[in-house]
Amino acid sequence: GAMWPVCGRLPAGVMQSRWVHAACAVWTPEARVVFSEDKEKDENGNPIVHVDLSKLTASRTNLKCQECQQKGGGVVQCLSKKCMMGYHKTCAQRAKCIAEYAETSKGDVMACMFCPKHSTPDLAAWRLTCTRSGGNI
Predict the structure, then answer these.
(1) CA distance 105 to 91
(2) What is the pLDDT of residues 46-80, one digit of tens each?
């Protein structure tokens, strides 16, 4: 997939990568997509973006994906209370998780993922509606 460059300083304990997958950057709650201040464009006329990972925590990079069994790379945990299942974006799709983006009550966009155990369509739809309305899951 598309790769975006990392800008800024990475926190201690986090792998010092200079590039991240675009889909993973959008998927990871602590990652922030930053558009070039001078409105620079690439060769195709698209705005140049960077990813700020300065808020990324070592605990996020230590989460293990239940599908591929690898740590790091923006693993997101199931939103069901007390569920510890976590997946990478593409692994969540393979594992038949329900994964969407939802707007929070603060207007931010967050990745919402429900593991296969908690991803029955009715239950997941109710939980996403609850998240969008600012309720607690």
Answers:
(1) 28
(2) 777 778 877 877 787 788 999 999 987 788 888 88
